[in-house]
C-alpha cells in the first residue's frame, strides 16, 4: 500500500495538471484552425496547423500599432516604477524622515482600491483637468505610463523595501568616508547590490502593465490603445472571428509565459500583495 | 548621515505621481458626486445638487441587482477555492517524484492576464465552438448555453475564477502547512485522535492566520473581478453575471452622467472599504491582540 502511494499522487497531479493546461491548449487549437473547421464537432487532436490567423494578426496595421503601444507602455512603466520605487525605498531605509512609516503605508493603500471605481474620475481628470493648452494626457502613451503607476509603483516599493533594507548601511557609510557623493553611493554601491531584487520587480511590473485591460479600455481611443483592448475590440465588432481572437490571445500570452519561466517563485509574493495591510 | 532634504528629494517623484493619480482622483470623484454634470444634457455645466445623486443610488434597481450577483459570485468562488486549495495543499505535503514540476504547472494560471483567461474560457464554453458544451451534451444530455441560461453563465464564471485563482490559495496554504511543527500531530496520533479530530482541533487552529489572510486577499480580488467576466459573458445574459465592476464599466461609465456615475463609484468604494474594515476587525485584529 505504502509503495503504491507515490504513483497515486503522480496520477492525481497529472489529472490536476491536465485541468490546468487543457484550456491553454484549447486556445492554441482554436488559433491554428481555419474558421470553417471550428463549427464542426470540436476536435481535440490537431492533425494540421493553419498559421493564417497569426499572419493576419501580424499583417493588421492597427493590431501592430496596439502591440507597439503595449510594449512601449509596459516597458516605460516598468522602468519608471522600478527606478522610483528603488529611490523611495532608499529614502525610507537610509533617512530618518518624520512619519516615514505613514508615507510607506499611504503609498501601499493606492493599490488596494478597486480599479473600476477610478475609471470615471481618471477619465474626467485626464480629459478635462490634466491638460496644458491642447495637450491632454488622455489617449497618450505617457498618460498611460503615469496612470499605471497607481498600481505598479506601490507594488515596486513593497517588493523592493526588504531588498534595500537588507543592504548593510555600513557600506554606504564607508563610501561616504571615502568622499563619495550621495549619487555615487546610490548608483555604484547600493544599486549593484540590489540588482536581483530590481530585476524581479522590473519583470513583474512589466507583466502587470502588459496584462492591464480596464484602464486602457476606458482611457484610450486609438493612439495609445494596447493589445488587450484590441482583443476585446475584435470580439465585439466582428464577433465571429474566433481564430483571430485566439491568435491575439496567444500573442498577449507569450510574454507572460516567458516571465513565468523566469520568476516563477516570486509570483505568489507579487500577487498576494494588494490586500494584505502593511 | 546626510540631511533629510536629500531624503525628501528622493521621495518627491513618487509622492507627486501618487498624489496626482491616487489622491486627486479619490477626492475628485467625491466632489463630482455632489454635482449634476452631463456634458450632453441641456445644461452641460457642473451644478451643485447636494446629495440628490446619492438619493438616486438607493433606488437604483440595476445597481442592487448587480450587488446581489456580485456577492453570490464572491461567495461561491472563494468558498470553493478555499476548500479545493486546502485539499491540493495537503496533497503537496507528501513526497513524490516530480512534485516541483507539478507545482510549477499549478502556478501557471496566476500570471495570465484576466482578459486572456476570459478569452480562453469563452473559446471553451461558447456553444458549437467550445469543447465543454459538446462534452456536457454527450455525457449528461444537457444543453449548456452561457448566452441564454443565467445559471450556466454564472456557473462558468465561478468555474473560471476557480481555475484562475485556486493556485494562489494552494500556494499560500502550502507555506502555512510547511511551517507547522510536527510535535502536536505526533502527540495527537499517540493519543489516538482520528483524522477529522486532528484537522478540526490541531491543523485548522494552527493555520487559521494564513487562512484568514488568504480569504482576505481572495475576497478583495474577487470583488473587483471585471476583465475576465466582461470577456466571457459581457455581464449577460440579462444581468446574470453583471458583477459590480462590469456594471460600472458597461452601464455607468458610457452613460456620460458623470455626477451620478461618481456617486455610484463612491458608494462602491465605500462598501469595499467597509467590507475590508469589517474583515479586519472581525478576523485579523482579534488574532493579533491574542498573540500580543
Note down, in words, how this protein is organized.
The complex is a heterodimer of chains A (278) and B (292). Helices cover 75% and strands 1% of the residues of chain A. Chain A is an all-alpha fold and 278 residues long. Chain B has a domain at 67-262: Orthogonal Bundle (MetI-like fold). Helix content of chain B is 73%, strand content 1%. Chain B is built from 12 helices and 2 strands, in the order H-E-E-H-H-H-H-H-H-H-H-H-H-H. Chain B has helices at residues 4-33, 52-58, 61-91, 99-107, 114-125, 131-140, 150-178, 183-190, 195-223, 227-232, 244-252, 258-291, and strands at residues 35-36, 47-48. Chain B has a two-stranded antiparallel ribbon. In chain B, helix 1 crosses helix 12. The chains are: A mainly alpha (278), B mainly alpha (292). Chains A and B meet through helix 1, helix 4, helix 5, helix 6 and helix 7 of A and helix 1, helix 4, helix 5, helix 7 and helix 9 of B.
Brief synopsis:
Chain A is mainly α.
CATH superfamily of the domain at 67-262 in chain B: MetI-like
Mean pLDDT of chain A, to the nearest integer, reads 85
Instruction: Give me the CATH fold name of the domain at 67-262 in chain B.
Output: MetI-like fold
Low-confidence stretches of chain A: 274-278
Topology:
The complex is a heterodimer of chains A (278) and B (292).
Chain A: H1 5-31, H2 35-38, H3 52-59, H4 61-94, H5 100-109, H6 115-129, E1 131-132, E2 135-136, H7 141-166, H8 169-177, H9 182-211, H10 214-219, H11 227-238, H12 242-263, H13 267-272
Helix pairs in contact in A: 1-12, 3-12, 4-7, 4-9, 4-11, 5-7, 7-9, 8-9, 9-12, 11-12
Chain B: H1 4-33, E1 35-36, E2 47-48, H2 52-58, H3 61-91, H4 99-107, H5 114-125, H6 131-140, H7 150-178, H8 183-190, H9 195-223, H10 227-232, H11 244-252, H12 258-291
Antiparallel strand pairs in B: 1-2
Helix pairs in contact in B: 1-12, 2-12, 3-7, 3-9, 7-9, 9-12
Amino acid at each position: 500500500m505504502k509503495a503504491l502511494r507515490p504513483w497515486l499522487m503522480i496520477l492525481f497531479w497529472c489529472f490536476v495538471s491536465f485541468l490546468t493546461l487543457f484550456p491553454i491548449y484549447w486556445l492554441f487549437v482554436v488559433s491554428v484552425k481555419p474558421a470553417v473547421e471550428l463549427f464542426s464537432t470540436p476536435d481535440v487532436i490537431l492533425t494540421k496547423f493553419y498559421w493564417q490567423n497569426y499572419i493576419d494578426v501580424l499583417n493588421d496595421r492597427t493590431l501592430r500599432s496596439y502591440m507597439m503601444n503595449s510594449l512601449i507602455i509596459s516597458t516605460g512603466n516598468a522602468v519608471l516604477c522600478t527606478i522610483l520605487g528603488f529611490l523611495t525605498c532608499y529614502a525610507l531605509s537610509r533617512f530618518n524622515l518624520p512619519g516615514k512609516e505613514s508615507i510607506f503605508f499611504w503609498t501601499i493603500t493606492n493599490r488596494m482600491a478597486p480599479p473600476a471605481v477610478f475609471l470615471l474620475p481618471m477619465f474626467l481628470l485626464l480629459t478635462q483637468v490634466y491638460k496644458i493648452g491642447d495637450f491632454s494626457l488622455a489617449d497618450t502613451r505617457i498618460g498611460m505610463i503615469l496612470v499605471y503607476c497607481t498600481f505598479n509603483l506601490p507594488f515596486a516599493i513593497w517588493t523592493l523595501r526588504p531588498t534595500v533594507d537588507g543592504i548593510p548601511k555600513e557600506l554606504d557609510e564607508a563610501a561616504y568616508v571615502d568622499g563619495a557623493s550621495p549619487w555615487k553611493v546610490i548608483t555604484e554601491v547600493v544599486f549593484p547590490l540590489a540588482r536581483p531584487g530590481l530585476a524581479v520587480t522590473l519583470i513583474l511590473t512589466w507583466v502587470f502593465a502588459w496584462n492591464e485591460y480596464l484602464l486602457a479600455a476606458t482611457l484610450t481611443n486609438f493612439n495609445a490603445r494596447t493589445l488587450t483592448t484590441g482583443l476585446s475590440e475584435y470580439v465585439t465588432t466582428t464577433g465571429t472571428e474566433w481564430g483571430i481572437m485566439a491568435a491575439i490571445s496567444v500573442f498577449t500570452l507569450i510574454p507572460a509565459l516567458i516571465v513565468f519561466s523566469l520568476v516563477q517563485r516570486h509570483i505568489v509574493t507579487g500577487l498576494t500583495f494588494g490586500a494584505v495591510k502593511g | 548621515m546626510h540631511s533629510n532634504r536629500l531624503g525628501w528629494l528622493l521621495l518627491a517623484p513618487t509622492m507627486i505621481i501618487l498624489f496626482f493619480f491616487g489622491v486627486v482622483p479619490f477626492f475628485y470623484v467625491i466632489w463630482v458626486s455632489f454635482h449634476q454634470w452631463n456634458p450632453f444634457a441641456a445644461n452641460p455645466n457642473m451644478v451643485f445638487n447636494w446629495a440628490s445623486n446619492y438619493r438616486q443610488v438607493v433606488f437604483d434597481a440595476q445597481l442592487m441587482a448587480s450587488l446581489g450577483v456580485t456577492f453570490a459570485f464572491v461567495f461561491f468562488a472563494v468558498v470553493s477555492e478555499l476548500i479545493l486549495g486546502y485539499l491540493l495543499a495537503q496533497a503537496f505535503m507528501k513526497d513524490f517524484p516530480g512534485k516541483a514540476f507539478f507545482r510549477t504547472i499549478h502556478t501557471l494560471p496566476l500570471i495570465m492576464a484576466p482578459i486572456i483567461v476570459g478569452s480562453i474560457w469563452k473559446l471553451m464554453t461558447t456553444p458549437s465552438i467550445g469543447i465543454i458544451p459538446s462534452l456536457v451534451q454527450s455525457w449528461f444530455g444537457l444543453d449548456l448555453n452561457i448566452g441564454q441560461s443565467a445559471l450556466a453563465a454564472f456557473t462558468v464564471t465561478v468555474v473560471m475564477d476557480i481555475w484562475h485563482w485556486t493556485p494562489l490559495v494552494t500556494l499560500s496554504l502550502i507555506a502555512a502547512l510547511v511551517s507547522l511543527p510536527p510535535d502536536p500531530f505526533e502527540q495527537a496520533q499517540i493519543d489516538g485522535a482520528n483524522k477529522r479530530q486532528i484537522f478540526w482541533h490541531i491543523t485548522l487552529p494552527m493555520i487559521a492566520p494564513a487562512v484568514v489572510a488568504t480569504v482576505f486577499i481572495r475576497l478583495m480580488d474577487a470583488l473587483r473581478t471585471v476583465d475576465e467576466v466582461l470577456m466571457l459573458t459581457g455581464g449577460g445574459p440579462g444581468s446574470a453575471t453583471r458583477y459590480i465592476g462590469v456594471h460600472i464599466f458597461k452601464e455607468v461609465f458610457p452613460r456620460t452622467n458623470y455626477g451620478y456615475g461618481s456617486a455610484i463609484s463612491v458608494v462602491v468604494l465605500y462598501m469595499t472599504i467597509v467590507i475590508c474594515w469589517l474583515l479586519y476587525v472581525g478576523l485579523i485584529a482579534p488574532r493579533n491582540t491574542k498573540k500580543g
